[in-house]
Write a structure and sequence with these properties.
The structure holds 2 protein chains of 2 kinds. Chain A is mainly β. Chain A is built from 3 helices and 23 strands. In chain A, the strands form 4 sheets. Chain A has a 6-stranded antiparallel sheet, with no helix packed on it. Chain A has a 6-stranded antiparallel sheet with strand order 14-13-23-22-19-20, with no helix packed on it. In chain A, strands 4-3-5-6-9 form a 5-stranded mixed sheet, with no helix packed on it. Chain B is about 35% helix and about 30% strand. Chain B has helices spanning about 60-80, 95-120, 165-175, 180-185, 220-225, 230-240, 240-255, 275-285; strands at about 5, 10-15, 15-30, 40-45, 50-55, 125-135, 140-145, 150-155, 155-160, 190, 205-210, 215-220, 260-270. In chain B, helix 1 runs antiparallel to helix 2 (about 95-120) and helix 6 runs antiparallel to helix 7 (about 240-255). In chain B, strand 8 and strand 9 form a beta hairpin. By secondary structure, chain B is α+β, with helices and mostly antiparallel strands. Chain B is built from 8 helices and 13 strands. The chains are: A mainly beta, B alpha+beta.
Chain lengths: ~240, ~290
């Protein structure tokens, strides 16, 4: 089985085998390879098998993940490579892989966690209560209703504010858009907001919106108070309780 | 082993504009399982897409998922002809008629699985997820229970139209764990809601406008657990033939281990070509 060896100043700190699950690297102690250093992000990177290749993926860390000398977002790893996070390096050892095709190991281990089950009402209530208690500890208040709202600061639209109730909110000229833009030459679908489990994400449409003055690339998770600008309309994203 | 429909070309009025809907679906047992408990159906004339992932020992997962799909398809087809179809329960929200019908179709599916399990003791404990999509007049209605998902690829980014009814997703919504942690959790298979567990079920619904260029994806968790969202988005963008895209997504899941049954339905919405160009295309389509 392949393994990762966490090194600091040429000393071995920890050795972790790479199994079927991704190996996480980060400052938080619940990582498989915790690295207690301020230069390392809470969840910094992860290493996993994909289609028989070993891959390292940076998890949008602040200071980056390096393979040998190269900063990477995602890279295939080879035997002897070193992954650098902050001043720590993680040595990649896949020399044992050739003997055992990793695929068979994965199959054998899989079914036990893979059997779908539905929680009955009692267990479900207990687990959610437990989850709620944990939520309070993490400074989250599940008891209060959160109402994500777009408040119009300026620009020609059909309402003063919009409550985001759908999974997908469209900003555009189309009569089916939630935030309806007015005026000539406005695109049918200028931008869109997607409600996901962990928050609201702004994505491009026929235009590239800006959040707090910076044009977005891809999709961006919105934070309470963010300023969205698109097609001459300025919207304030706020979460009301 | 794969089964699936041929891509079809249809037109539907969207804000007065004709839009083509081309769709295709595939299902595969995966690389580990011995039986396929997923079911799906594409009902072209209705623009109805239904996908279900069954659970329960022996062959009962298949029974549950095909019951789910059949009930929903029958319910919606009958409703099309007979507006006096009995509603299982009233929908209080201000959704469109079609969305309410779809929600009731899912409730009916829940009841038929639950009652079947009550009648046949060997089916005890069987259940199913379901994700159903119905396109009407440029509006997409979605109803779902469980962890089979609906996505919309639009302007290059994948928008998730459903929230999983799983323990880990609920923990993410409550801010207890991150989405990353949820994807790596061993508790991913624990569902909070499924069809067939009780005589009543809470059905999530949503509706959204469809724009030309949108690609709708319905998939079982056998896809989303094996293939990352950027990979899914990339595959849908690169392969414009819906049946081929559905197959390529399944291939990806299998390349990454294929731990579960995988089912995908892909529907692509595009402007109807106008004038002589459309005549030309129709001519070439006939030759195929």
């Amino acid at each position: 089985m392949a393994k990762l060896s966490l090194m600091f100043e040429n000393k071995l700190v920890k050795e972790v085998p790479i199994g079927n699950r991704p190996v996480s690297i980060g400052r938080s102690p619940d990582n498989d390879i915790p690295v207690d250093n301020l230069a390392v992000s809470t969840y910094h990177a992860r290493v996993y098998y994909e289609g028989g290749r070993l891959v390292v993926e940076d998890l949008d860390s602040l200071n980056g993940t390096f393979v040998n000398d190269l900063r990477v977002e995602r890279a295939t790893l080879h035997d002897g490579d070193s992954i650098w996070v902050g001043k720590h390096s993680i040595k990649v050892d896949t020399s044992a892989d050739a003997a055992i095709p990793w695929d068979t190991g994965r199959k054998a281990a899989a079914p036990k966690i893979n059997e779908t089950m539905v929680l009955d009402t009692k267990v479900r209530r207990e687990m959610l209560q437990q989850a709620a208690a944990m939520g309070e500890r993490s400074q989250f208040s599940p008891g209060r209703m959160k109402m994500p709202t777009l408040v119009v600061l300026s620009g020609k639209v059909n309402q003063k504010e919009y409550l985001l109730t759908n999974k997908l909110t469209v900003i555009g000229k189309s009569p089916m858009a939630t935030v309806r833009l007015r005026g000539w030459f406005k695109p049918k679908m200028a931008a869109q907001i997607n409600q996901r489990d962990d928050g609201y994400y702004l994505g491009t449409g026929d235009r590239v919106p800006a959040v707090n003055g910076t044009p977005i690339s891809g999709t961006v998770r919105l934070n309470d108070g963010d300023l969205i600008e698109v097609c001459g309309v300025r919207l304030n994203f706020i979460i009301r309780e | 082993m794969c089964t699936g429909g041929e891509p079809r070309v249809l037109t539907e009025s969207l804000e007065g504009v004709l839009v083509q809907i081309v769709s295709g679906g595939m299902t595969d047992v995966g690389r580990v399982r011995t039986n396929n408990e997923d079911s799906f159906r594409i009902l072209d004339p209705l623009h109805l897409y239904v996908l279900s992932d069954g659970m329960g020992g022996e062959a009962h997962g298949e029974v549950a998922s095909s019951l789910a799909v059949d009930t929903i398809v029958n319910y919606c087809s009958q409703a099309k002809e007979d507006s006096g179809v009995t509603l299982v329960a009233e929908s209080p929200d201000n959704w469109s008629e079609k969305t309410k019908l779809l929600q009731n179709a899912v409730r009916a599916a829940n009841l038929s699985i639950f009652e079947s399990a009550q009648r046949n003791s060997e089916q005890r404990g069987m259940g199913a997820t379901v994700t159903a999509a119905w396109v009407n007049g440029g509006k997409l209605s979605i109803a779902h229970v469980g962890d089979s998902r609906a996505y919309l690829l639009r302007s290059g980014s994948l928008q998730q139209l459903t929230n999983d009814h799983s323990l880990v997703a609920e923990q993410v919504r409550r801010g207890i764990i991150s989405r990353q942690q949820a994807e790596e959790s061993e508790m991913q298979s624990v569902l909070l809601r499924a069809l067939g567990a009780h005589n009543e079920v809470e059905v999530d619904v949503d509706e959204t406008a469809i724009y030309s260029g949108d690609v709708l994806l319905l998939c079982s968790d056998g896809l989303t657990r094996m293939v990352t969202e950027p990979e899914i988005a990339g595959t849908l963008q690169a392969e414009t033939n819906p049946s081929a895209a559905a197959q390529k997504l399944i291939d990806r899941a299998n390349e990454n281990g294929g731990l579960d049954n995988v089912t995908t339905i892909v529907a692509r919405f595009q402007d109807e070509p106008k004038g002589w160009l459309s005549w030309l295309r129709r001519g070439s389509a006939k030759k195929d």
